[in-house]
Amino acid sequence: MSDWPPAETAEPTPGTSDRTPVTDADVCVVGAGPAGALVADRLAAAGKEVVVLEAGPRFDPADRRARQERFLRPSAGRQAVWDGDPERDAYGASGEAHYPLNRARVKGVGGTTLHWQGMVMRLHEDDFASRSTRGVGVDWPLDYEALQPYYAAAERELGVAGASDNPHAPPREEPHPMPAFPPSYSDSLFAEACEALEVDTHSVPNARNSERYDDRSACVGYGTCQPVCPSGAKYDATVHIERAEERGATVIDRAPVQRLDHDADRISAAVYATPDGGTHRQEADAFVLAAGGVETPRLLLLSDSPHYPDGLANSSGRVGQFFMDHLFAGTWGVLDEPTRQHHVGFLTSESHQFYDDADDEVGPFKLEFFNYAGPTPVGLAFTGDDWGDDLLEHIRGEYGRHVAVGALVETLPRADSYVALDPERTDDHGNPAPHVHWSVGERARNTLARANEVQEAILEELGAEITYQEGPDRTIPANHHMGTTRMGTDPAESVVGPDLRTHDLDNCWIASSSVFPTGGALNPTLTIAALAIKCADHVEASL
C-alpha cells in the first residue's frame, strides 16, 4: 500500500562502498535514527567496536538545498523529498481507521530526524504513572526521577533551545543548553487572547540552535524545517552518526536486516541484504535494535524459529502489541489583520495548562500555537492560474491572515492496536510487509473534543472566523510510533526490562519509542534519546 504516487528520486549518495561485515564487533546497532546514532556514539566513545546497519541510504548534506526546492514545488511531500520507495516501504493497514504509515516514514541515515519538526519536551511525572494517577493504561517500571539525568544528557547531546517558563513542566536540574527562540508575531496575538481566557502560554523547547552550538550554525530562518533544514541548525541524527564514525564506528547504509539468527538465549548474527543482491551475517557480542516502533517489532516477528515460533523475544506474546500514536486536533481561522504566518517555520509557543487535568475519561493534551497556518506565498504562486498583477492581488488576498491552534492528544495502549506481518504484501526483498491495525478509542475522542473546545474559545477571543477543524470525527496521527515492544518488570506482560534488555535474550537491547508503556501527549524524541543514552550505559556495563 502506498501513500504517494511514484516520485522522481535523486541518485542515492554512494555511502559505504564496503558492505562486508565487521570482524570482532562488540556491538551491532540496527537503525541509524536518533536512538541508534546516540547508542553508537556513546559506545564508540567507550572504545567499543561498533557497527551500525541502516536499511536506507546515506544522504549527501550538499543535496539539502535541492531537496528544499523540491519541497517548495506542488505535491512534493516528505516521501518525494527523502526518496521514498513504495516497493521497499510497502505496508498494510486495517482497523477502526486506516493508518497512513508512509506519510512520514524516512529510511536512511538520520531517520525521521531528517524531516522532523524538532520539538523536544520531557514527559510529565504523571505520564510515568498513568494507571496510578489517571486510572487507565499502565505504569512505567521507572519514574520521572530515574530518567531525569538522562533527559538532561539528551538535551545537551541534541542541543535544545528553551526556557524555564512552563509552570506545568516537570522539575529541571539545570537550564536548557541554549536560550529559547523569541515568540513570533502571531504568538503575541495568541498570548493576548489566552491571557483574557486565563490560559497559560510558554515557550517550546526546540532541538535547533538559537545560537551557534556543537559546531553547527544558529537557525537562519529558511522556514522549511519540516521536511528539510538546509543549514543544519536543526538537529538530526547524522550529527551522532558522524561523531560515532570519527570514534571508529562503522556505518553500513542500504543494508536492511532480514532476520536475526539466534539460539534460545542469544542473538548470534544480524543477516542483512546489500544492493548487489548479496547477504551477509554481522556477528557481535551485543545487539541493539533501534529501528523504530514499526520496523523493530517487524524484525523480531520475521526472526521466528523453533525456539521462538511466534517471533524472536516474544515469549510474552507482546511483540507488536499496544501500538500507539498521538492524535492531532486543530482549529483554523482567518483574521481581518496580518498574522505574519510562515515567517517562522516551527512552533515557538504552546500551553500545557490542561495536561495534568487528565483522568480516565479525558486524556492529557498540549496546545500548539502555529506559526505556519494558511497558504504560503510560494504555494499560492505555484498553484494559482493567475499571472502578473492578478497573481499579486491573489497572493495579497489569501496570504498572511490565517491563524491556527493545534493539539497533541494521548491514545492508550489497546489490544486492538498492533503491528503484525501482512499476510499478502511483501517488501522489495520478498519479506512480509508490516501491517498496522489501528484503533482510536473513546477516551481519545473525548480528548480531541475537549481540545477543540479550548481552541475554539481562543480563536473566538481573537475575533477570528473559524474555517476548518480536525477533531473526533476527523483526525490524523502525529506519526509517533510507540508501544510495540513494551517495557516492564513482568516477562509475561512485557518485552524488555527497565534496562532495555529483552527478557528472553541475554545480549539484545531495544532503544526505541517501541518500549514506551504509555505515550503521554508530548513529542517522543527527547524521551527516545534519554532512553537510548540509558540503554548505552547498560550495554557498556554488560561488555
From TrEMBL:
GO terms for molecular function: FAD binding; oxidoreductase activity, acting on CH-OH group of donors. Its cofactor is FAD. Gene3D superfamilies: FAD/NAD(P)-binding domain. Keywords: FAD, Flavoprotein, Oxidoreductase. Residues 209-239 form the 4Fe-4S ferredoxin-type domain. Residues 1-23, 161-184 are annotated as: Disordered. Belongs to the GMC oxidoreductase family. This is Choline dehydrogenase-like flavoprotein. It comes from Halovivax ruber (strain DSM 18193 / JCM 13892 / XH-70).
